[in-house]
Design a protein that fits this description.
By secondary structure, the chain is an all-alpha fold. The chain has one domain. The chain is built from five helices and no strands. The longest helix has 21 residues. The two termini are 19 Å apart.
C-alpha cells in the first residue's frame, strides 16, 4: 500500500479519479471482509471501510462513487433505510457533478 500512496502523491492533482476508484475499491474489499467476520473483527473491517470512504469523499464531493460505496457499506451493516438515502443522494445532480462508474 505504501507504493500505491507514493505513486499517487507524486501525481497529486492528475490522479484524483484514480485515487477515488482505489479508495472505493479498498472500501468495498473491507466491506466484504466485514460481512464474513463476526464480533470485533467485523466492526474493525467496517470502520476501515468507513475511513476509506471518508478519504474518498474529501477528495471530490461531486463524485457519486463514494456515496454508492457508502450505501453498500450500510447494506452490509443491515442499515437499509440509511442505505436508500445514500443511494438517492448519489443519483442527484450536484453542481459540477460528473457521471462515474461505481466499483
Amino acid at each position: 500500500m505504501a507504493q500505491v500512496e507514493k505513486h499517487f502523491n507524486d501525481q497529486e492533482d492528475r490522479a484524483i479519479p484514480q485515487r477515488l476508484q482505489l479508495l472505493c475499491a479498498a472500501a468495498a474489499f473491507a466491506t466484504a471482509r466485514g460481512r464474513r467476520e463476526r464480533g470485533g473483527a467485523r466492526n474493525e473491517a467496517f470502520a476501515a471501510a468507513q475511513g476509506l470512504l471518508g478519504q474518498a469523499r474529501a477528495l471530490d464531493h461531486s463524485d457519486a462513487t463514494p456515496y454508492l460505496a457508502a450505501a453498500q457499506l450500510a447494506l452490509a451493516k443491515v442499515r437499509t433505510r440509511w442505505a436508500s438515502g445514500r443511494g438517492l443522494r448519489s443519483g442527484r445532480t450536484m453542481p459540477g457533478a460528473r457521471w462515474t462508474a461505481a466499483p
